[in-house]
Write a sequence for this structure.
């Protein structure tokens, strides 16, 4: 049974290229189960209470600390249970939307999704596949001024997800038709 975690990071619900193309990716992959996380619904930011709770050993956490980490624990559980992670990555001002950065902060947790060793960090979420659906107005995906896709790819690798494919719908303000056609071809080429 294949479980797919879909993360929508576009703040636009109507007219969003990443949401439309992510729909197509999900249809193409036809997973057994789909969990959807829409970051436009809101996501908490980490704060001092969250950090204190996170760095307290689990067995020593107070009820307040457990509550501070409850949303993060739920997001981590979604990620751990997924076989495939599909993330809609709109490029906002050369980077990721703030809500996607907040999601990263909630799921990149030492001793939970990665650990430090004498040889450096090791991701704990091995064996998963990720597909990034990237869209931009003028930024070329993968270029020197694209700080979104390389960032998300790096974060995924940091937590152990190294099989990352990118569906590129960049530079839509330059040539929208070519961007969408290229993305659709990328989706059609995905192995199910």
């Amino acid at each position: 049974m294949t479980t797919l975690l879909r993360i929508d990071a576009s703040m636009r619900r109507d007219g969003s290229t990443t949401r439309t193309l992510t729909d197509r990716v999900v249809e193409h992959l036809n997973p057994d189960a789909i969990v959807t996380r829409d970051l436009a619904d809101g996501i908490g930011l980490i704060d001092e209470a969250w950090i204190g709770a996170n760095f307290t050993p689990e067995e020593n956490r107070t009820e307040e600390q457990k509550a501070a980490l409850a949303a993060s624990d739920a997001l981590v559980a979604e990620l751990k249970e997924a076989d495939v992670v599909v993330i809609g990555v709109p490029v906002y001002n050369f980077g990721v939307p703030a809500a996607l950065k907040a999601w990263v902060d909630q799921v990149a947790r030492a001793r939970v999704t990665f650990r430090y060793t004498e040889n450096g960090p090791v991701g704990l979420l091995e064996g998963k596949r990720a597909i990034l659906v990237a869209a931009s107005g003028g930024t070329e995906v993968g270029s020197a001024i694209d700080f979104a896709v390389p960032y998300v790819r790096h974060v995924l690798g940091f937590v152990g997800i190294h099989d990352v494919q990118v569906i590129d719908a960049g530079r839509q303000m330059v040539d929208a038709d070519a961007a969408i056609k290229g993305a659709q071809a990328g989706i059609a080429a995905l192995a199910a």
Notes: The radius of gyration is 17 Å. The first strand starts at residue 3 and ends at 8.
